[in-house]
């Protein structure tokens, strides 16, 4: 049912001791659809779905069409947990590869009010992060300043943005992507 609903990237997982835990993100419209589809009085359902407001539903719908990752799949977490970031603050992330060796692709999706639509900037591969394979289950720190990369810092325009990560066994693109595109 969840996969058929718009504007969400939510996965149901078996919870310890029985029941189901819903994890992921959903836009406001997607959260409303989830709440209508899943009865409020459903026993043993734990909601861990983060709701957001922004123009990212097409991104979630595209990602939801990809094959499901196996348990222990790719994870991407903000260091220190989700928090509101401020101007000039470094965006630090931790990616953990799934149970296979492969390429990591990370993109920054920003709401550009002037363009009227989201813009996408590739982070990996990108400056300081060449295309490369990573071992299965490798922990990869991302965003901090280091040789070849000034790090990823928060700057205008401000608002709710999204970072998307995909692991693949082969590069997704034959040549480097533009610095920014719709």
Please describe what this structure looks like.
This protein is mainly β and 182 residues long. The protein is built from two helices and ten strands, in the order ββαβαβββββββ. Strands 6, 7, 8 and 10 form a four-stranded antiparallel beta sheet that branches. It is globular.
Strands, helices and their partners?
Elements: E1 8-14, E2 20-27, H1 28-37, E3 45-52, H2 57-64, E4 75-78, E5 93-96, E6 102-112, E7 117-124, E8 133-134, E9 139-142, E10 162-168
Parallel strand pairs: 2-3
Antiparallel strand pairs: 1-2, 4-5, 5-9, 6-7, 6-8, 6-10
At a glance:
The chain has helices at 28-37, 57-64, and strands at residues 8-14, 20-27, 45-52, 75-78, 93-96, 102-112, 117-124, 133-134, 139-142, 162-168. The protein is built from 2 helices and 10 strands.
Helix fraction?
A: under 10%
- Gross morphology is globular
Number of helices: 2
Low-pLDDT stretches are none
| SSE sequence, one letter per element | EEHEHEEEEEEE
- Structural class of the helices, strands and pairings? mainly beta
Q: Between the first and last Cα atoms, what is the distance in angstroms?
A: 30 Å
**Mean pLDDT across all residues, rounded?**
85
> What is the gyration radius calculated from CA atoms?
17 Å
The count of β-strands is 10
Measured by DSSP, the beta-strand proportion falls in 25-35%
Largest sheet: 4 strands, antiparallel
What distinguishing features does this structure have?
4-stranded antiparallel beta sheet; 3-stranded mixed beta sheet; 2 helices; 10% helix
């Amino acid at each position: 049912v969840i996969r058929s609903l718009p504007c969400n990237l939510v996965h149901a997982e078996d919870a310890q001791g029985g029941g189901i835990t819903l994890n992921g993100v959903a836009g406001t419209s997607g959260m409303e659809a989830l709440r209508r589809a899943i009865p409020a009085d459903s026993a043993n359902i734990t909601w861990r779905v983060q709701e957001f407001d922004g123009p990212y539903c097409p991104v979630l719908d595209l990602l939801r069409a990809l094959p499901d990752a196996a348990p222990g799949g790719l994870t991407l977490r903000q260091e220190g947990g989700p928090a509101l970031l401020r101007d000039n603050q470094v965006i630090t992330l931790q990616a953990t590869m799934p149970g296979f060796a492969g390429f990591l692709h990370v993109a920054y999706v920003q709401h550009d009010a002037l363009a009227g639509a989201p813009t996408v900037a590739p982070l990996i591969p990108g400056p300081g992060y060449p295309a490369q394979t990573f071992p299965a289950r490798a922990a990869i720190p991302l965003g901090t300043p280091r040789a070849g990369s000034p790090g990823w810092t928060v700057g205008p325009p401000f608002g709710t943005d999204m970072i998307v990560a995909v692991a693949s066994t082969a590069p997704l693109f034959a040549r480097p992507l533009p610095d920014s595109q719709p």
